[in-house]
Amino acid sequence: MAFPVPTSRDSYIVDFLPHASMDTVHHMLLFGCQTPVSTSSYWDCGSVQGTCEDESSIMYAWARNAPPTKLPNDVGFKVGRNSGMSFFVLQIHYGDVNAFRDHHRDCSGLTLRMTLKPQPFIAGIYLLMSVDTVILPGKKVTNADVACDYDSYPIYPFAFRTHTHRLGKVVSGYRIRDGKWSLIGRQSPQLPQAFYPANKEVTVRYGDTMAARCVFTGEGRTSKTYIGGTSNDEMCNFYMMYYMESKHAIPFMSCMEPGSKELFQHIPDEANVPIAVSPGHMHSMMPVGNTADDQHLLKTTKAEPGLDLDYHLEQVSTWPQSSLQLGQVSGLALDSDSNLVIFHRGDHRWGTDSFNSQARYQQRSLGPIQQSTILVVDPANGRILKASGRNMFYLPHGITADKDNNYWVTDVALHQVLKVSSDGRDRTLLVLGEAFTPGSDINHFCQPTDVAVDPETGNIFVSDGYCNARILKFSADGTYLSQWGAGSSDRRRRTPFRIPHSLVLLPDRKEVCVADRENGRIQCFIAETGEFVKEIKNEEFGGEVFAITYSPAGDGLIFAVNGDSPYHSAPLRGFVLDYSTKQILDSFSPTQKEFKMPHDIIVSKDGSVFVGDAGSKAVYKFTAEKLHRSVKKAGIEVQELEEVEAFVQAKLKPPPNILKTAAIKDKQTVAEKTPPVVEAEPRTSTPKSNKVESVLPAIVVSLLLILLLVIVFIGVFMCWRKNKRNEMKIEPRSVGGVLGKIRENWK
């Protein structure tokens, strides 16, 4: 189905969000072109009609429950006026028709996030594809090789995707320069076919050779398998997403030349090593009987009230409704009543003279902080509900609340972890570490940063810290259990923690994750054993990750904030990451001010996100601006940019950083052909009719003022002429009233 680019101006796609399940959809392709085959309804993409009457460019591809693809900063796919792409064409291939036998209508499709802001780099797709491979029945290994010389301007690969059908084992893409093969990306096509991060070290320039190999097996087949479009055929595709300077931009390039045996004699051995895939990922796309597809989806879909993956976080500028009078905000937590708990430093501040070279606190003479350092705040309006923690702490840092509403806090000046009551009596229930004494044994800490509490076992985890590089585990009564350092999938290249700064427990996964601040990464471990699970690192973090929190929504979401790094330049902001895929789903920052030092982050059950900023001594609230989605009979639904409104606003005030969202919903089923329905969803809560009503009175008043000025000018001019001619001073009958008074004053 075709859909017009929803603006006549040049626009840039900066994000893709797929909405499909491999239970129904085998794969989706998004094309851009000037003249699609049809603009009135859907059509059979396997017919002789094709996709576009002119040349089409592949912009995005999805298969096998792939997660969203995030483009780098300053990179976008150019569409609109001067791009040669005025239409999107979404092509969907179905593997199982059973879901449609009850006249079920499919709502699979794709959300595109777009901006009008010109991007310095333009994204494109380079497709390496085999067209003549034949897989012999029973043959264990068949290689499909593709290679072409590159003869254009430099391109910078940043993501890749592999695609075959069921016989594909592994697909690899390479750049060849001066005889050396450099891997761009390698993946099993049986895994979720996302765009995975490419090797950042590889660039492609004039004179290089692009090459790809798909490895197939013919075992289990009784006849030859050819390259084709059905599920019984095979495909060999290596998609490389790249960017290049806008002045040289080429949106799509392809290579379908079979590689020579001489060239591929030198391909690295890894290209023929299959990648293990768990049985859960080997999902057959063939018909599975008459089971209702809707029931299957209800069983497999995870839902979390208040949280939707299809959203963008925006600051609530009216929160808090009154000033909280905070010092440096170091920690945030949620108590068991879902109230926000703020931990701040009052009139104390951490400066360059706070500690000596042995990490001993140098300002004990100031005494403890006299203000209430722990504030319990209503998350809805920011009103203070309770205040405690006076004359207890010197330099607060991390805080968390257990299921009994006790607070577990760290104080970097005291080098201690304390369990404190929340009843307002400021009782210290448990102390770990020796006051003002740094150390590295099991009885001492050195500037500990944060605490995480297991709600089931009561075990606590401590990140230690600024001058140690470890995570310690204690029982609920404070008995030491174990400790560990940084993890790595390659034990020979393990990088130690550099300020493990923030901890969060993932109760649904039984894991604990740490923000390794100076290494700019997030690492996760099995809570029971400390065994390393995974690492999340992204160049958009800019080299530092200050704090993290977690929500079990969807497949699990990690919320993070970054910090200033002396080695990297990146804006300070918050991130929403998919735990499973490690992909950034959203980023956010204040609209009225900028972050100065975002120090901690917490997410509530309703999806509200709070960020404590030590630099600006403030707490910011962000809520999800959900993108409206509903099933339309025609299979197309649009969250369209409000072009006229946006342009009017841009003339009245400085242009906001507007993110435009267009969602394309395609339907290529045997359902009846119904005229397309296009629905515009405004991004603001003010109805359009109110805006029109507010504009019309302004126009009328302006016209009346102009008319009045013209009448005044005419009256004054006529009086002046009559005076010059010494005529009798009589007020003009046609104007009288107000003009008569004006003339008297003028005289």
UniProtKB/TrEMBL annotation:
Transmembrane segments: 695-720
Start-end of each NHL repeat: 388-423, 437-477, 496-528, 582-625
Signal peptide: none
Subcellular location: Cytoplasmic vesicle, Secretory vesicle membrane
Listed cofactors: Cu(2+); Zn(2+)
Residue intervals of the Copper type II ascorbate-dependent monooxygenase N-terminal domain: 4-98
Substrates-to-products reaction catalysed: a [peptide]-C-terminal (2S)-2-hydroxyglycine = a [peptide]-C-terminal amide + glyoxylate; a [peptide]-C-terminal glycine + 2 L-ascorbate + O2 = a [peptide]-C-terminal (2S)-2-hydroxyglycine + 2 monodehydro-L-ascorbate radical + H2O
Domain Copper type II ascorbate-dependent monooxygenase C-terminal: 122-267
InterPro entries: 6-blade_b-propeller_TolB-like (IPR011042), Cu2_ascorb_mOase-like_C (IPR014784), Cu2_ascorb_mOase_CS-1 (IPR020611), Cu2_ascorb_mOase_N (IPR000323), Cu2_ascorb_mOase_N_sf (IPR036939), Cu2_monoox_C (IPR024548), NHL_repeat (IPR001258), PHM/PAL (IPR000720)
Record's bilayer topology term: Single-pass membrane protein
Record bears the keyword Signal: yes
Keyword line: Copper, Disulfide bond, Glycoprotein, Lyase, Membrane, Metal-binding, Monooxygenase, Multifunctional enzyme, Oxidoreductase, Repeat, Signal, Transmembrane, Transmembrane helix, Zinc
Family of this protein: In the C-terminal section; belongs to the peptidyl-alpha-hydroxyglycine alpha-amidating lyase family. In the N-terminal section; belongs to the copper type II ascorbate-dependent monooxygenase family.
Name of protein: Peptidylglycine alpha-amidating monooxygenase
